[in-house]
Amino acid sequence: MSYMRFIVAGDSHGDLDSLKKLVDYADYRNADIIFDGDISGYPTKENGLMNNKITFEKSIDIFGSYKDGYTYIIPGSHELRSVWYKAKFPENVIDVDKRLIKVDPRKVDDFSIIGYGGSKRAPGYIKPGKGFRRIPRIDEINDLFFENDDHKIFLTHEPPYGYGDVGYFIKYDDDSIQAVPPDHPNAQSSHDGSKVFEIVVETLQPKLTVSGHFHGNPIAQKIGTKEKISPGTSSDEGIFINPGELTVNSFQSEGGHFAEVEIYDSGYVRYLGHRNIRGR
Asked: Band of the pLDDT at 1, cuts 50, 70, 90?
């Protein structure tokens, strides 16, 4: 039975050192990479918003340095449209945003990956229309799912409702919201994922769904029941993974998280577990 291994990650936010370690680990494991967006760094005092572009381009170069494997990637909520659309992606870095792409046929048959990047909210430093603020359209996603008969991997930035989507925040009297770590003494929490994506994964049942965006939620769940699953679990009915945030420069969690899975040409997906880039 043929299979291929994927390293699943996202939300590196300009942390180039962690990204390089991730690519080295993928090389060690002979794995391809699925990346759920937000590779761009935050504005800095030195470079301002230009830091977003600088860290994006350096991150793409790091992915491109991995010559023996592919990276399948979508934009997150911190990517700039002008930077993304002008990017010269290396041959082994595949932009799957709003596309269906067949995964590396050298390793496994009959699997395709569908990407749908962005989120319903973009950070305040990105002007309206300049980032990937996006409300998903179910007709667009349907068309992609029925483009071929392969087993599907569904890659989004914003997760489906109820899947790795718990946000921790403080809400102030003026209705403004500030994200906080889960252990903050005044933290409130709620599910804030996409209802459209929930319908998609529970109706169309991709074999694997990967999303990030909610940093403090490294988790693997069964599609449908939303039950948390343990490393070593195999399923042909659908697994969801939020790999957690790759960056270690985080205020919401200890960071450094990613996950590992295997897919089999029979349609099975096996969740191998979450790892941390500092200890792997």
From this structure: low
Total residues found in the chain within this entry: 280
Q: Residues 144-154: pLDDT tens digits?
A: 999 999 999 99
Angle at 193 between CA 190 and CA 198, to 5 degrees: 125
Q: Is the pTM of this model over 0.85?
A: yes
Residue 233: DSSP 8-state: -
Could you write out the three-class secondary structure of 89-136? CCCCEEECECCEEECCCCCCCCEEEEEECCECCCCCCCCCCCECECCC
Tokens standing for residue 198: 């929930």
- Specify if 92 maps to a domain: yes
Q: What's the token pair of residue 126?
A: 């990105």
Whether 96 maps to a domain, the answer reads yes
Give the C-alpha separation, 156 to 118, whole Å: 8
For 72, the enclosing helix (H) or strand (E) is strand 71-73
Q: What is the dihedral of CA 87, 91, 94, 98, to 10 degrees?
A: 70
Residue ranges making up the domain that contains 153? 3-160+192-276
Q: pLDDT, tens digit, for every residue of 3-59?
A: 899 999 999 999 999 999 999 999 999 999 999 999 999 998 888 999 999 999 999
- Kindly state the DSSP code that residue 229 receives in the 8-state scheme: -
Q: How far is CA 10 from CA 126, 164, 211, 258, 267, in A?
A: 20, 13, 8, 8, 24
Residue 142 exposure: Cα atoms within 13 Å on the Cβ side: 6
In a domain, 182, yes or no: no
**Residue 190, beta-bridge partner list:** 167
**pLDDT tens per residue, range 54-77:** 999 999 999 999 999 999 999 999
